[in-house]
Write a structure and sequence with these properties.
Elements: H1 2-24, H2 45-50, H3 58-70, H4 73-78, E1 95-96, H5 99-106, H6 129-141, E2 145-147, E3 150-152, E4 165-167, E5 170-172, E6 179-180, E7 187-188, H7 191-203, E8 222-226, E9 229-233, H8 252-268, E10 272-276, H9 283-292, E11 296-301, H10 305-317, E12 321-323, E13 344-348, H11 352-358, E14 361-366, H12 376-382, E15 383-393, H13 396-399, H14 404-411, H15 421-439, E16 442-451, E17 456-464, H16 466-473, E18 476-482, E19 488-490, H17 509-512, E20 518-525, H18 532-544, H19 548-562, H20 606-616, E21 629-630, E22 639-640, H21 644-653, E23 658-660, E24 667-670, H22 674-683, E25 686-687, H23 712-738, H24 740-745
Parallel strand pairs: 10-11, 10-14, 11-13, 12-13, 14-15
Antiparallel strand pairs: 1-3, 2-3, 4-5, 6-7, 8-9, 15-17, 16-17, 18-19, 18-20, 21-24, 22-25, 23-24
Helix pairs in contact: 1-3, 5-6, 8-9, 8-18, 11-12, 12-15, 15-16, 18-19, 22-23
């Protein structure tokens, strides 16, 4: 079709020129035709070579036009004008190797006016060759961007329309100057932006093959194995969002945790329908179907056609049947010898929001590139009662307060960088999940919240009904954070405005420091981040399937959920798991008797739920304390702090709940206030200077005993005394350097 369009354009131009030449010029010179590249078209070499004589008969042009129509597309592409033999055929005409190539495209002639091939006629009129040469060199070639021997010249054609200007009753559309990217064909206005755009392609290892719709040959695939599951991926599979078969090996821990959560749900009721909304290579859904077999009915979805094709091939590679979506049920494909339904995986090609609106699922996992807030409403619309929704957010730059405006735009949450920023990110995501579930008259219970370097994983159980929705919505509150000492506390419930909200903070920084010392963060989730019973059963599943990476993290999460020191860590057997409360109801376990309240996914009456919740709800809340303190952040200057495990025991002996946290390797989760935390830390720290007292606790001034409520003012006075000692030491050092002889004599 490109050759056909070029032939038609050349025919129209030759007819007009033929009329003008018959009146004014002699037609004996060569190359009288203008190139048909004024609107970004590429001229056929065959057409141009046939335009040697100015008086070409119309019969020849019509015959040539018919030949172009009958020609195969590949043959027509091979005849496209190519000023360089290795010039890519799909590049824009503004991308050339040499200035001579650009001049050939303009077809310079000394005795004839020629237009610029990169400028419209209203911007640059046709001129003689010497002037056109100067125009191409100064206005196009000198401001070009070079990449791998090619020059991306500035283009003024109608490729990139600018906002129209209204003048009277007419609408004029300006055409802006721009560059065409050699890799992705994007149009960039500024030269500096074009250079940065190319550099981003280079840094990500992207090539033009990523932006061509033709699939790569199978010879370029390579097979990756994880958890006894084989998947074939492209060589650039580790580049996010830039390849159809994105596969990140660093997310192995994430996949193991999600698998354990699904295995626990599969033990409660069978079979369950689960959805991997963003399949990519399909490895997650393949692991579910391969290990859980008849307990699950797996659906893998992706909106990209190449990804769907690769998912089907990976299913065949793992000897799984492929069931297409409902519209194509008659075209089911079967691979393998088995005829059981357990080996069948349903593959769909549609938008994730659409598939979650059309069908109901017991387990839904969302793992888009970046934030998942765009899919929360659809996920909670049709998820079944007591089902599970898990979501992985990889937009860590906004969640970790590096791009605060993006976090406010996506999550409607105001956050700052704090020492507990990872837990702040998890509570930000859960708050968004809670609001989305409440809009569908559903409540949630958080089963698991993990925030590591690459992702934030949240797993919640869905509770239908307006009452659970109201209870969950009440747990979304604002947080008061002191920017001086980093003390923090959730605002109290209620709508009444307080005269002095600083009174809610345990510290006294507002009274001793000038100006405003606290900031309001949120709204955030203020409830628990873990469910101990669910985590214990996840740990059993990880041990059963040999998931080593998940085992170590789950052990830390169990200890963190109970918030007990390592030596007080309870070790319940498998038979004691049914004593844990989840969602106010009993959850079936392998050792649960038939007389207990089993959950099979069916909604119970409100009376049964209330009575069961009353029997199961403890007298006092056993939730772990929110947030944690970094021991290095609050270490005392000039003192050697104790080992972390010893310090945990010291806090536990002082009567506080304490545990380590997976959010920070040096973090301590405790219900002690910051002043109490610093008091215990200072008591068991030893001085670093020579001649200090032997190892042992440092006696604090006054009669302050560990375990008592330490007022905030006392801790501030201790800090002020330390600052005074530091200043005195600095003055003494200056005096010693100024008068060394006198000091030695004294």
């Amino acid at each position: 079709m490109a050759a056909l369009e070029a032939a038609e354009a050349a025919l129209a131009l030759r007819r007009e020129q033929q009329k003008e030449d018959e009146e004014n010029h002699d037609h004996d010179h060569e190359g009288g035709g203008e190139p048909a590249a004024l609107n970004g078209l590429v001229v056929s070499e065959k057409v141009k070579s046939n335009n040697i004589d100015g008086t070409i008969p119309e019969s020849e042009l019509e015959a040539e036009e018919k030949g172009a129509e009958e020609e195969h597309p590949r043959q027509s592409d091979s005849n496209i004008l190519d000023v360089s033999s290795d010039y890519p055929r799909d590049k824009h005409i503004s991308i050339q190797r040499h200035l001579a190539d650009l001049e050939k495209l303009a077809d310079l002639r000394e005795d004839e006016r020629k237009p610029c091939p990169l400028c419209p006629e209203e911007k640059f009129r046709a001129c003689y060759g010497y002037k056109l040469h100067r125009h191409l060199q100064n206005l196009h070639w000198k401001v070009s961007v070079e990449f791998e021997g090619y020059r991306m010249c500035i283009c003024h054609l109608s490729c990139r329309p600018v906002k129209p200007n209204l003048i009277g009753d007419q609408t004029l559309s300006k055409m802006g100057a721009h560059y065409h990217c050699i890799i992705c064909s994007a149009t960039i206005v500024r030269r500096t932006d074009m250079i940065g755009h190319i550099n981003r392609h280079v840094n990500k290892g992207e090539t033009e093959s990523r932006f061509i719709t033709v699939r790569a040959p199978k010879s370029s695939y390579k097979v990756v194995k994880e958890s006894a599951t084989d998947v074939q991926v492209l060589p650039n599979h580790s580049t996010p969002q830039k390849t159809d078969s994105y596969f990140n090996p660093k997310m192995k821990l994430n996949r193991q945790l999600i698998f354990c959560a699904l295995a626990v749900l599969a033990g409660e009721r069978k079979p369950i329908e689960c959805l991997d909304a963003f399949g990519a290579t399909g490895i997650m859904g393949l692991q579910w179907a391969k290990h859980l077999r008849s307990s699950v009915k797996v659906t893998i979805n992706d909106c990209n056609e190449n990804s769907v094709t690769m998912i089907k091939e990976n299913c065949h590679l793992n000897k799984m049947k492929v069931k297409l979506n409902i519209k194509e049920e008659g075209n089911d494909e079967t691979v393998g010898n088995g005829e059981e339904n357990s080996d069948t995986i349903e593959v769909t090609k549609m938008d994730a929001n659409v598939v979650m609106h059309l069908r109901s699922f017991d387990f839904i996992h969302l793992d888009p590139y970046g934030s998942s807030v765009n899919y929360l409403d659809s996920a909670f619309r049709n998820v079944r009662n007591l089902g599970i929704v898990s979501l992985t957010s990889t937009d860590t730059s906004s969640l970790y307060a590096k791009a605060q405006h993006v976090a406010f735009r996506h999550y409607a949450c105001n956050i700052v960088r704090t020492e507990y920023y990872k837990e702040l990110a998890a509570r930000t995501v859960i708050a968004a999940v809670t609001r989305a579930a409440a809009r569908c008259n559903k409540g949630i219970e958080v089963l698991l919240a993990v925030a590591v370097e690459h992702f934030v994983l949240v797993v919640v159980r869905v509770l239908r009904g307006p009452t659970p929705a109201d209870d969950s919505a009440k747990k979304v509150r604002y947080l008061l954070h002191c920017q001086w000492c980093e003390e923090r506390v959730f605002q109290k419930e209620g709508n009444m405005v307080e005269e002095n909200p600083y009174q809610q903070l345990p510290c006294d920084c507002y009274g001793s420091m000038p100006g405003k010392t606290a900031v309001l963060l949120g709204p955030l989730w203020s409830g628990a981040l873990f469910n101990t019973g669910f985590l214990r059963r996840m740990l059993l599943e990880a041990m059963q399937y040999g998931l080593d990476e998940a085992q170590s993290l789950l052990k830390t999460l169990v200890s963190e959920s109970e918030c007990t020191a390592p030596r007080h860590l309870s070790t319940h057997g498998p038979g004691d798991e049914n004593k844990q409360e989840e969602c106010g109801v009993y959850i079936s376990t392998p050792n649960t008797s038939a007389d207990s309240y089993l959950v099979h996914g069916k909604r119970k009456s409100e009376e049964v739920l209330r009575s069961t919740a009353k029997r199961q709800r403890p007298e006092h809340s056993a939730e772990h304390p929110p947030f944690y303190y970094n021991i290095h952040r609050h270490s005392i200057k000039g003192m050697n702090m104790p080992k972390l495990n010893k310090f945990l025991n010291y806090l536990s002996e002082a009567g506080y709940r304490v545990s380590r946290t997976h959010f920070d390797p040096m973090g301590v989760r405790t219900n002690a206030l910051l002043a109490q935390f610093k008091t215990v830390l200072m008591q068991y720290s030893t001085p670093t200077y020579v001649g200090a007292q032997a190892e042992g606790p440092v006696h604090l001034p006054g009669e302050i005993h560990v375990g008592e409520e330490v007022p905030a003012a006392t801790a501030i006075k201790v800090e002020e005394a330390e600052l005074a000692e530091d200043k005195a030491g600095v003055i003494t050092g200056v005096f010693t350097q100024s008068y060394p002889t006198h000091c030695a004599a004294d």
